[in-house]
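Sequence only, no structure available. Ideas?
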Amino acid sequence: MLNELIYCALPPGGCAASRDGSRSADNSWMHGRYYGEGKTSVTCLANCVTFARVNTLKAPTEEAGSISIESVEQFARDTVSGWSALCQKFLDTQRSQIFERAPSPKQLEAHRSALKWLLRFGRVIHMTAADPDYPDRRVADELEGRLLQLEHSWRMVHVTMPAGDAEEVLNQVFPG
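Reply:
I predicted one. Tokens follow.
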């Protein structure tokens, strides 16, 4: 189960709740906690308009302080599934905003940045899933497929073919 902590984006002292000393380990000011089952306790009553949410693992209540191998494996599967769904959303957006339109330089830069992040994270989790001792080969297979799609996207959108090569391809496809 995941807990979600809420942090105020205001600097220390800029929020009424920060005066109560509820400071987190990373020196940000904590305002509340989600306690599973959708219950929350938010202590900030100030005009904080921007909150950051950070997911943290919660140990099973029946075995406080320990995490079972099953829960770790499920976390890994859920992470891959969430990443894969995000990739599909990215590819759908790419189709509608990059391929079906003439994208602006700003859109191309946003696409480039998002694609870099997806590739980085995908490669990292693939390295884990590709380990011979990893218990579920299907996870590595799904990651490989998504990484191929993302790498193909990179080549299609961000790698330009030299004019001479483009002319050669056109001549091969349309001779004479």
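Confidence is low (pLDDT under 50) at residues 1-57.
Hope that gets you unstuck.
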